[in-house]
Write a structure and sequence with these properties.
Elements: H1 30-46, H2 58-64, H3 67-70, H4 75-92, H5 100-117, H6 126-139, H7 151-165, H8 172-188, H9 194-202, H10 214-225, H11 227-246, H12 251-267, H13 275-282, H14 288-302, H15 307-313, H16 315-322, H17 330-346, H18 351-361, H19 367-378, H20 382-387, H21 391-399, H22 406-428, H23 432-438, H24 441-446, H25 453-467, H26 486-497, H27 502-511, H28 521-532, H29 541-556, H30 562-575, H31 578-588, H32 594-611, H33 616-626, H34 636-645, H35 648-664, H36 673-679, H37 686-702, H38 711-720, H39 726-739, H40 742-755, H41 761-777, H42 779-783, H43 786-798, H44 826-844, H45 851-867, H46 880-898, H47 901-906, H48 911-915, H49 923-937, H50 959-975, H51 978-986, H52 989-998, H53 1006-1023, H54 1029-1038, E1 1042-1044, H55 1048-1071, E2 1090-1092, H56 1096-1104, H57 1110-1119, H58 1158-1164, H59 1179-1187, H60 1198-1224
Antiparallel strand pairs: 1-2
Main location: nucleus
Biased composition (Basic residues): 1198-1212
InterPro entries: ARM-like, ARM-type_fold, Pds5
């Protein structure tokens, strides 16, 4: 039987084969045969199918399929034979002159030759193999295979051989021939063998499949060429896999099949016409794993380059996939979110749908989904984030920075940090779109620093790794030759500061580590680690071990997981790696330049990750906190140049940073003295001179050996000290005072004394500022003229009443109690400076024999100012704006003087009046007083009793005052060791009760006691624990075993407060299932405020007497009932909080910017605890504030409330008049 092709007919032959030699015969050598085969091949190849006499081919046709030819040992013979047979098939087409068995042998022979011989263009007989392949491709004689009984077997072999063959890196033309052959076979096949399909599909499953791989490329071209034919087979293939494996719950095979679908979609989407609806159905199945797999794969397919077309072609599938965002299984929602990154990049048409889905997932109940949604944004490139993500989305991510779960917080803030890092070059170039989209990120992140210890740690890491990273060889901040571009690094800080609010700027300054007193806790820790010597201690073993444990405990409290931190720090100490100690000290050294810091930091990171990998997170956080990574001594020259140039925000921020350095870390200037002395020579540049004089004053106070020796510089400084510019004169005087040049100081004082009476108001302010510096740093020079100076300052400046400005009588703000720093009149400025002179003089003589002689009238004066609300006489008529500043300065001065023990003892009787300053009617007085108080309480410079004052903020109408107090208390309680905590926060409970008994608002009426109870509850909420509740109850009991040191009336008040505290403690303990047991220890009550009872009989009578009113007793009883039974109490109408006017102003010039004037903060900012910071978290207080909303209408002091009401009436009258005038107009 003769097989036939399916192609067109054959024309009449016109040419016969000329070859007449025999190919078979005994004694025929290989060379002879090879020569004949070559000649035959040449002639056959030249014959045209349409003009050949096929009968002339019959002889060679038969000889060529003889086994002696097909199985010949010579490769050349077989190569030419294959070519000849291919030509025979070409010339005989459409009829094949062979039986099916012969054709089977022929095709097997063909592909065997190709497999064994086709190895590259330089291989022998390459041209013959090329001819064979080309003939099979162009003539399509290979389709004869489909008609053979063994067609399936042959097809499997052909596909397998071709995919192996194509890997040999053959010319592109050969690959095209192979594609044509395989496509022809698939098109002509009646049945496609499963093995063939698997052979094709397997090319997509190899690792790292890419278009450069020949097998993958061949499969792609074959699939795209036969998509219509293969669609059904591919769909059936996947259906079989899913059905076969889902029954056995073997999802590995199903995952593999779906991975294949994804790869096919990337290269051959036409194959999946019937598969996509199948995936859509999988999205609806109950089986979570199958739904999960389908969600992931479809998400990746939609995110692929052809995703838009896929979504358009299968809208139902797209809609069902989007609904997976609300799947009941969190794992499915997670896969949905993970896929959205690619959608944002590639599927612009569906941006709104994706944005809405992601926004909803930022609030998903599952933390992993929320974290993944945040992480998506950190994986975006700059262009996508700029053009295809809205600012609202990014701000929604920022809100997750205070999520209740750590993983979400980390991903949210890290993503924002990465985006800012990508956008910074464009922000630096003032690109408007980039500024609008990303410039707010640092501000938002830094504002979260006070939320919690956990959030603070993340903020530190994000700021130092992405917002303000150290330059390195991998960043543009590093120039060629290994030199670090310090200018670009410093400018990045200045550019970032342009977009920071005041609160964020303060947070950023806090992260600079400049405010820490050196040696700080980290210095002590390293030194103690060295002494510990890995546990092998030569002397004072117990002392060293105890000190190390204490330091580790103290540092660990600043970490999110203190127990893990303790473990990590102990491992660091145990390792006892001397090189690490040295590197840490290098990073912590203020004289280390930026290049040295980078080198040391990189080595620390490498060594820690190698030697202490499990503890790396804690130790690298420790490194960040202890080293100068944001501001460095290398920053100083650039900052000076920016101030010199005076360009807007950049100049202002450079000045701010230099001022901060001058206050807290003047050691930075040691290497830059020449730049500072050169800068002050530019006398026309006032901001530059002022800033650099401040810097010189700071660094000379730090190290007097650095005093300039240049005569012209010293003369210039002396001249500056006599100028009318207050700040320049002040800093110049400070330089002279700290230099120790007594004669220069004496001469300066004499010149100023002679000029005081004739000075203009501005120059008088400057002179008083200079005298304040002399009194502070050169008291001997001041004392030479002290009688004359003090007489003039007191009589001619301080005691002169300041009346309101007549021009302001018709002003709506006539009752405004505060004036901004920049609007302070010279007369008021002079008065404030006189108070400072008095304070500095007292502090300078604190250790001398004249201490009390000098300070007693000063203390009395300050107390008088507080008593009379900022006036010396208490008579009405003085300017309220002046009075508020005066009483604030008096209160702050008393705080500073209280840091000296002898002065603190002297003012015990005035303590209560000082304490209620935190309830002043003016907001600015309250917040500034509290801020200064906290800055002195944190390093424990004030006696423990001053910790009572923050608890008086509970009724403040402004949330940030109470929040600041709450934040300080919780932070201090967390950081303090138990014995210190007891002394500073627990024992003082009796002092709080005593203060409340003396409070101006105290009354024994039930309504008043309800308000007083808020103070006690505030204390209990923040301080009480199951460990100390017995002590607090014991102190409350003790309140009825003593009497007040002043009078019987206050004693009864104390008993009322003590009973109230006892019941509230019991109620609080009961609500938390705490046991209030008898306190086993002995407590010594403060003798300065309490006295023992005269006799036991009096004690018995007092114990039996109930001092609380009946209504209050009933109210306390209700506290112990279940919440459902309680009736919500309405705040009494008369307890309404003062109107905004009563709190300082209608317009509220709250001056949240610069809560302290520059001179106040820089002169009075004392060295603080190493890891102490003024907490800024308002968020912590929100929960308690919500609980107290019904009582938000609380009062300040009684006197303050009276003044507030009067002001409120005047304000309403003024408003009515203004309306009348407006209507007349």
């Amino acid at each position: 039987m003769v097989a036939q092709t399916r192609h067109g007919g054959q024309p009449s032959p016109t040419k016969k084969l000329a070859f007449r030699e025999k190919l078979l015969g005994k004694g025929l050598s290989t060379d002879a045969l090879l020569k004949k085969m070559k000649a035959l091949h040449t002639e056959l190849a030249s014959l045209d199918q349409e003009h050949v006499d096929v009968s002339s081919l019959s002889s060679v046709r038969k000889e060529l399929v003889n086994t002696s030819i097909l199985l010949h040992k010579d490769r050349g013979v077989k190569a030419y034979a294959a070519c000849c047979l291919a030509d025979i098939l070409r010339l005989y087409a459409p009829d094949a002159p062979y039986t099916q068995a012969e054709l089977r042998d022929i095709f097997q022979f063909f592909f065997r030759q190709l497999t064994n011989g086709l190895k590259g263009a330089d291989a022998s007989y390459y041209n013959e193999y090329f001819h064979l392949l080309e003939s099979l491709s162009t003539v399509k004689s290979v389709v004869l295979v489909c008609d053979l009984p063994t067609a399936e077997e042959l097809m499997v072999e052909i596909f397998r051989d071709f995919f192996n063959l194509v890997r040999r890196d053959l010319p592109k033309k050969i690959e095209i021939f192979m594609v044509d052959i395989l496509v022809a076979l698939i098109d002509e096949a009646q049945v496609l063998p499963t093995e063939v399909l698997e052979s094709i599909l397997s090319q997509f499953m190899e690792n790292n499949t890419r278009i450069e791989q020949a097998g993958y490329r061949l499969a792609v071209q074959v699939c795209n060429g036969t998509a219509d034919k293969l669609q059904r087979h591919v769909c059936q293939h996947f259906t079989d896999i899913i059905v076969a494996n889902s029954r056995d719950e073997d999802f590995n095979e199903i995952r593999t099949a779906h991975e294949l679908i994804k790869r096919l979609n990337h290269s051959c989407p036409g194959l999946l016409h019937s598969v996509i609806p199948q995936l859509e159905e999988e999205l609806r199945v109950e089986e979570v794993t199958l739904r999960l797999i389908a969600t992931q794969v479809l998400g990746e397919m939609f995110a692929d380059k052809g995703g838009a077309e896929l979504a358009k072609k299968y809208p139902a599938t797209w809609n069902v996939w989007v609904l997976r965002k609300n799947d009941k299984a969190a794992s499915v929602r997670l896969k949905f979110v993970e896929a959205t990154k690619g959608l944002l990049v590639n599927l612009f048409e569906q941006r709104e749908v994706i944005e809405e889905a992601l926004l909803s997932k930022l609030l998903d109940p599952d933390e992993k989904v929320r974290a993944a949604a945040c992480k998506v944004y950190g994986q975006l490139d700059y262009e996508t984030a700029l053009h295809h993500v809205s600012e609202g989305q990014l701000r929604a991510v920022a809100e997750r920075g205070v999520d209740k779960k750590q993983s979400v917080r980390v991903e949210a803030l890290t993503s924002l940090g990465k985006l800012y890092s990508l956008a910074y070059p464009e922000i630096e170039n003032n690109e408007p779109l980039a500024i609008k989209q990303f410039s707010w990120i640092p501000n938002t992140i830094l504002q979260m620093i006070g939320v919690s210890t956990e959030v603070r740690t993340i903020v530190e890491q994000v700021v130092m790794e992405y917002i303000l990273p150290l330059p390195s060889s991998s960043t543009p901040s590093s120039s060629k030759g290994g030199d670090v571009d310090e200018v670009a690094w410093t400018d990045r800080l200045l550019h970032t500061m342009k977009f920071l609010e005041e609160k964020s700027t303060n947070a950023m300054l806090l992260l600079t580590a400049l405010k820490q007193v050196r040696p700080n806790v980290y210095d002590h820790f390293l030194d103690t680690c060295v002494q510990n010597n890995g546990g092998i201690i030569d002397e004072d073993e117990e002392k060293v071990t105890h000190r190390l444990d204490g330091l580790i405990q103290h540092i660990s409290l600043t970490f999110p997981d203190p127990f893990k931190a303790v473990e990590d720090l102990e491992a660091f100490a145990k390792l006892n790696e001397g090189r690490l100690y040295k590197l840490f000290k290098t990073c912590m050294d203020s004289q280390t330049d930026l290049k040295g810091l980078i080198k040391a930091t990189n080595e620390v990171q490498r060594r820690v990750e190698q030697q202490l990998s499990p503890h790396a997170a804690t130790l690298l956080t420790l490194l960040r906190r202890s080293s100068f990574r944001i501001l460095n001594q290398s920053s100083i020259p650039t900052l000076i140049k920016r101030v010199l140039k005076g360009h807007g925000h950049t100049s202002d921020h450079a000045k701010l940073l230099l001022t901060y350095v001058s206050k807290h870390s003047p050691a930075f200037y040691k290497s830059h003295m020449s730049e500072l002395t050169k800068a002050i020579a530019d006398e026309k540049n006032t901001p530059l001179v002022e800033t650099c004089l401040h810097a010189l004053a700071g660094v000379l106070h730090w190290d007097k050996k650095l005093i300039p020796t240049d005569k012209r510089t010293l003369e210039r400084i002396t001249r500056f000290s006599l100028q009318s510019n207050e700040r320049i004169a002040k800093f110049a005087a400070r330089i002279l005072a700290v230099s120790g040049d007594a004669s220069a100081c004496d001469s300066l004082v004499e010149l100023i004394v002679d000029d005081l009476a004739e000075s203009s108001p501005e120059k008088l302010v400057a002179h008083v500022a200079v005298l304040a510096q002399i009194a502070r740093f050169a008291p001997e020079a001041f004392e030479h003229q002290s009688d004359v100076i003090m007489t003039f300052l007191l009589k001619q400046i301080l005691m002169v009443p300041t009346l309101p400005d007549p021009a302001q009588k018709d002003d709506m703000d006539v009752d405004e109690e505060w004036v901004a720093d920049e609007d302070v009149a010279p007369t008021l400025r002079a008065k404030i400076l006189v108070l400072k002179v008095c304070r500095y003089r007292s502090l300078a003589h604190a250790s001398s024999d004249k201490a009390l002689e000098i300070s007693t009238p000063v203390l009395k004066m300050f107390a008088t100012l507080i008593e009379h609300s900022g006036s010396f006489t208490g008579q009405a008529g003085e300017d309220p704006k002046v009075m508020s500043r005066m009483r604030l300065q008096a209160a702050v001065s008393l705080l500073h003087l209280s840091t000296i023990n002898i002065y603190a003892q002297t003012m015990i009787q005035k303590f209560i009046r000082l304490a209620v300053t935190v309830q002043d009617s003016c907001y600015n007085v309250r917040i500034l007083f509290l801020t200064k108080l906290i800055s002195l309480l944190q390093p424990r410079k004030l006696p423990p009793r001053y910790n009572v004052i923050p608890f008086l903020t509970v009724h403040d109408p402004e949330s940030d005052v109470k929040a600041l107090a709450s934040s300080y208390i919780t932070g201090a309680l967390r950081k303090m060791r138990p014995n210190i905590r007891t002394e500073h926060f627990e024992i003082i409970f009796i002092r709080l009760l005593h203060l409340l008994a003396h409070h101006p608002d105290f009354s024994k009426s039930h309504e008043e006691l309800l308000d007083i109870s808020k103070y006690i509850q505030f204390y209990i909420d923040l301080v009480a624990t199951s460990e100390n509740v017995s002590l607090l109850f014991h102190l409350a009991l003790k309140g009825k075993s003593v009497r007040d040191s002043e009078s019987h009336a206050y004693t009864e008040n104390l008993y009322v407060i003590a009973e109230l505290a006892q019941e509230m403690i019991k109620s609080y303990a009961s609500s938390r299932s705490w046991s209030v047991q008898s306190y086993p220890g002995k407590i010594r009550l403060p003798a300065d405020i309490l006295r023992p009872l005269p006799n036991p009989e009096a004690a018995k009578v007092i114990n039996k007497t109930i001092y609380l009113p009946e209504d209050t007793i009933e109210w306390l009883a209700n506290l112990l009932k279940p919440k459902a039974e309680k009736k919500e109490r309405k705040a009494p109408a008369k307890r309404k909080a003062p109107a905004p006017k009563a709190n300082g102003s209608a317009k509220r010039s709250r001056v949240k910017k610069r809560r302290q004037s520059d001179d106040e903060s820089e002169e009075e900012s004392e060295a603080e605890d190493s890891d102490a910071d003024v907490p800024q978290r308002e968020e912590e207080a929100k929960a308690s504030d919500q609980d107290d909303q019904e009582d938000a209408e609380e009062k300040l002091g009684r006197g303050a409330r009276t003044r507030a009401k009067a002001r409120s009436r005047r304000q309403r009258t003024a408003a009515v008049k203004a309306e009348a005038v407006k209507s007349d107009d």
